[in-house]
Amino acid sequence: MAKGDKINFSTPSGFLEFLPSEKRLELYLLDTIRRVFESYGFTPIETPAVERLEVLQAKGNQGDNIIYGIDPILPPNRQAEKDKAGETGSEARALKFDQTVPLAAYIARHLNELTFPFARYQMDVVFRGERAKDGRFRQFRQCDIDVVARSQLSLLYDAQMPAIITEIFDTINIGDFLIRINNRKILTGFFKSVGIAETKIKTCISIIDTLEKVGEEKVKQHLEKEGILAEQTQKIIDFIKIDGTVDEVLGKLKSLSQNCPHVEQLSLGVSEIKTVVAGVKDLGVPEKRFCIDLSIARGLDYYTGTVYETTLLGYEPLGSICSGGRYEELVGTFLGEKMPGVGISIGLTRLISRLLKAGILNTLAATPAQVMVVNMQEDLMPTYLKVSQNLRQAGINVITNFDKRPLGKQFQLADKQGIQFCVIIGSEEAAAQKSSLKDLKTGEQVEVGLANLAEEVKRRLS
Length: 462
Prior knowledge:
By secondary structure, the chain is of the alpha+beta class.
């Protein structure tokens, strides 16, 4: 770049940065999610932002995701080192596009240091080469939990996932939501029962997964393009439209599986979802919060059993706000053994963006400070510092204004940042060991002794 050239410092397309009020909202949500995760015994881990490319691409892990590769960029005075810096060979590297594939590699690397079933959470940034558009980002934070076992994993772990989702979204108070549950074995078994060739089943499941986005007619067209007969297509559409209460859908599935005794996978899927639903009820999840939806498939090939999608009622165009499912082979990819797992993911960055736009969430104040100690005169700064520290030691967040300016300007500064209370101490107040406490929300101003100031602020905050 030539000297004097103008630098484009705008945010790269598809990448996001938060203002303080938005970042504080994200931190509040992260704290809420973390508390719920840990209440169920999940433990935190961290995996590198960069993984070996062969890990991310192993056995179709990449799916349709566009991966960002990592290549060294040398400064002009070190170009002679270019060949050496580019010697990555088998260590070609890329940014991780999700948390699940890195989890598989993490378990393989630490197999003998972990206790199984291994329940972990990770709330980290991932990168995808998505086409940048509203609500879609190339860098975003995911909040994931997974439980992974060696050989066998109880279906009650599957049942825990809706309980965790319910607790998180009830705590955040985002309104009514519905956790839609299905089982991939049910879909696979049903497709077999209507004569769909084994080689076409995964493709058919992927097509079904687009139903909400493209509509019934498009799904029919896509199935027919795959060579599925019109009669088979109609049976599939009729099947995925089965609805009713959880018990009603279970009854219909049981009847269907009894009429197809030769399709073992269908019966197994029905048995599994029955166990999961019973566990969800035992965990106290209200029935208004979940249902069985046979159109839910989750497009990723590695899901093999229970799958989940969560929808915000009244805001269905927002799409799924939390999804996941059970997988059998993914984690064992690097070890050559069966390691079943089940997990869910909240795409927090996307969720925040969409809920703010819809007016369901609001940003927090730009600062965590609850009180500003204003600067009336420079010679009283030792008093201001002492009062500020006393308030902090009482658990109150405080900004001390070190710059003397007109009192009205200081009030404006506090109000702009969302600070509710200002402490005013002039020479007379300092001599009397008193202060004036001004509530910027109500305009009320009261005299409070310095010894009682922290107690009075806490009373008013509560």
